[in-house]
Amino acid sequence: MIEVDGSFGEGGGQILRSSVAFSALTGKPVRISKIRAGRTNPGLMPQHLKALEAALQLCNGEATGLEAGSMEVCFTPGDIMGGRLDVDVGTAGSVTLVLQCILPIALHADGRVELELSGGTDVNWSPSADYFHHAFKPLMERMGCEVEFDVLERGFYPRGGGRISVRVRPWKNRRLLDLMEPGELLGVDVYSVASDQLRERDVAGRQVKGFLKMVSPHHDVSGIHREYVGSQSVGSSFTAVAVCENSVKGVCTLGERGIKAEDVGGKAADTLLSELANPGPLDVHMVDQIMPYIALAGGRIRSSALSGHARANLEVARIFGYPLRFEEGAIFNDVHH
User: Fold this and answer.
1) Which one of 219, 309, 336, 337 is the catalytic residue?
2) Nearest Cα residue to 159 out of 215, 93, 224
3) From 67's CA, which of 35, 80, 87, 176 has a CA 20 to 30 Å away?
């Protein structure tokens, strides 16, 4: 059984998600200890439990330690099967973080997998649904993945209640991802979403105005998407995607009580301008999200520095025997699995 120290690096949930995914893909049982030891509330949280339970269903596996607050989990995978799976992450638990765990597994099923996840679609400390759809998914498609994605309902903090639908076909035609330069900036697309309760205050429109004020003098904002949605909680989100010749860079921010809508868009603008000034081809969060796929299919990505999540993914890939490495300002995998 492979042993993974969950306190590695920042000691967060990324080590758990990646370890379970690689366990299912390699067929190697894993014991993850000291889970989330680096957090103020260590151990398994409800959204981690839901991700593990979904992974177990996808790969017909067995596990011990599946309870809230557990600091150790033993995960034994079985065969990955196609079919339909409904995952209720609960309240505003992040559906995109659960996807980070189960999507690589679903891509290796023996047939089509249909997923419906309910919970938070636009919540703190996780990629927004629009970031997944318009920034992450295009990179997956370049690597040969066939994934369909729809937001059925939006879920904001604290009640959540959002729903996404994801359809995944077996990943048969793997293509390496070679991203060393972003290339020319072709345009910027923005996705501003707010709950219906915020329509009269034009929150979605004001978020766009705050973004354009900072970005328009420097770059062409080619696509502006404003949307008001029904939601169980009042909330808003703003996602911007810079489409480059060779890659994409995305950022997402959330509306908060007491923060002007214009400042929500302005914060996204400030972050995106910083990312565009960085010569690397991907934003800092995309690097860690795409790394498991580089481990599986091969490729290289230029990156001046690694986030805590990226370091966790690099370590877990190494433990499971994938030749992923970081040297001379780039992440490499020369061997295809």
Assistant:
1) 309
2) 93
3) 80
In terms of Cα–Cα distance, which of 188, 53, 192 is closest to 122? Answer: 192
**pTM score, two decimals?**
0.96
Q: How far apart are CA 149 and CA 198, in angstroms?
A: 26
Q: Which residue in this structure is represented by tokens 């219906």?
A: 196
Is residue 328 pLDDT above 90, yes or no?
no
Residue 65: exposed, middle, or buried by beta-carbon count in 10 A (0-12, 13-18, 19+)? middle
Mind listing the domains of the chain with CATH numbers? 1-78 (3.30.110), 80-173 (3.65.10.20), 182-277 (3.30.360.20)
Percent of the chain with pLDDT over 70: 99
Q: Among 237, 236, 252, which Cα is nearest to 286's?
A: 252
For residue 12, what are the contacts with CB-CB under 8 A and spacing of at least 6? 36, 38, 39, 308, 309, 312
46: its two tokens: 């409800």
Query: What one-character DSSP code corresponds to residue 202?
Result: T
User: How large is the greatest C-alpha to C-alpha distance in the chain, in angstroms?
Assistant: 57
Known catalytic residue at 134: no
Q: Is 257 exposed, middle or buried (0-12, 13-18, 19+ CB in 10 A)?
A: exposed
What is the DSSP code (8-state) at residue 136? I
- pLDDT of 66-84, one tens digit each? 999 999 999 999 999 999 9
Tokens of 238: 């703003």
CB atoms within 10 A of CB 128: 27
